[in-house]
Amino acid sequence: MNVCMRITFKCTWDEMIARLEHNMSTNSTSHTSWAVAKEDDHSLIFLANITDFAALNEPMMNEDQIAWDTANGCEYTAYKIETMNA
């Protein structure tokens, strides 16, 4: 996994997970895997192995997604993760 995002939101947990599942399934060529860890009912940690950042940009930055994020109070903090070699 090479990306970590902390996402906070005002919608329900189920609505947020459904949106993530939709976005990731419609753009399956951009990643090889992803996982979510629940912090609480309105925040999560998203981990993903992104293989094509340009391809991921379209579903994450289009007008529909920006409107959805605004309406649901989503805030993203993204981090790049690198492997630590011994």
UniProtKB/TrEMBL annotation:
What's this protein's name?
Answer: Uncharacterized protein
State the superkingdom: Bacteria
